[in-house]
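Notes to self after the call with IL:
- keep both proteins in one doc
- input above output, always
- annotate only the second one for now

Protein 1:
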Amino acid sequence: MTERRVYVIDDDEAMRESLSFLLQAHDFSVQAYDSAVSFLRVAPALAPGCIITDLRMPEMTGLQLARVLREGGMALPVIVITGHGDVPLAVEAMKAGVIDFLEKPFSDDLIFATLNTAFHRLDHQSEAEAERAAILARLGELTARERDVMTGLVAGRANKVIADDLGISPRTVEIYRANVMTKMQARSLSELVRMAIASGAF
């Protein structure tokens, strides 16, 4: 399970400190920042965690931060808090990749429930990334010809069709197919297809 690490971003010092104290008292590991800009300066080096950010801040808003993170490929769950919540802003927040939008004042139970959802998502995201990395490593062990055969298999082509496409015999395709299944650790063709999709390489 991912460590319960929370990055609190708020230009309001009193709010930043009270929220940090609350979370630390409930065994969260907390790092606080007074602006989205100061957070982004160090973000690439930070461990996975959840972000709680105020919406309205100087220089960069919480929604702008969420967009920058998403566009930069940093898939950290973002929770936006605001004292000026409305439906259009909530919709805009969700489009920016925010997982929840909390209007002040919010209860302790609500923030904890929202964080639990965020960490659940982060755990599964980490698992998916680890699986993809393992699949890509296995793909890297395939020869060029094995990769060609796998491409045909994933496309749903029969051995004979793959053989014709590659100018080799069906028997040779069977040998390559067996090698692919072994190297990819796939127990069935459907599992091989699932791996190909998960890898993003097909």
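Protein 2 (the one to annotate):
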Amino acid sequence: MAAPRTIRTLLGGLALAAALLFAAQSPATAELAKKGNLVVSFHGEIAPQRLPRTQAAPVAVRMGGKIKTTDRTTPPKLERIVLEINRHGRLQSQGLAVCPLQRLESISSSEARRVCGDAQIGHGNVTSRISLPGQGAFASNGPLLAFNGRYKGRPAILAQVATQAPLPLTYVIVFELRKSAGTFGTTLIGTLPPIASSYGYISAFDLALARRYTHAGKRKSFAAADCPAPAGFTSAPFPLARASFEFDDGRSVSAKLVRECKVRGK
């Protein structure tokens, strides 16, 4: 069923607001990690940075990474992305529509918006380096649409990626959502399907999550956070997120982002 006009308008407005919030902030510094000749960079931000001290408020979360080698050789293929979010940030989808995985695997981006617009929770893009016989290597940038979903009975983010010509492909990266203890309270485990790397490798990705909606008469936000500043302090540095990139040659490269939040109000 297509999303009602009011929901589509709200989602579009929220995506624009998130983009403006991120644009208004100073450029984020990416964290670099290296293993052998393999180098990955990990960037991320949360907006707004001014948040309540104890009660979670709606936010937009953005995370992304880039992969390259120091000697310009072809890097190993990325098989899994693990994103961990600080426990003061929360992802919840109670009452939000769910988009079936099977539906996203066989339709275009525009069709996905039409049939699952009421389950959309974010957007982004994926850049791949693709090699075709007789055509050499080229970069292909494809839009990413993120939807609220389920996988093996558990909450999941379904990231549909659509590559561009001359090799148009559509595939879905399933990010399983799991709760964990310690500094990072939410883990997103993204497994890349074989089709995502059959003709090349993913060299960069960017994912922004933000969605407000109404359930049982109450306003809710898919992403929410508070600022864990101690009493008497108006700001606090904190580990925002950690990413691990796992490759088919057995290497795993991890990087952690430390950011600062400011307390809103008293």
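Annotation: The chain has a mean pLDDT of 86. The two ends are 44 Å apart (CA to CA).
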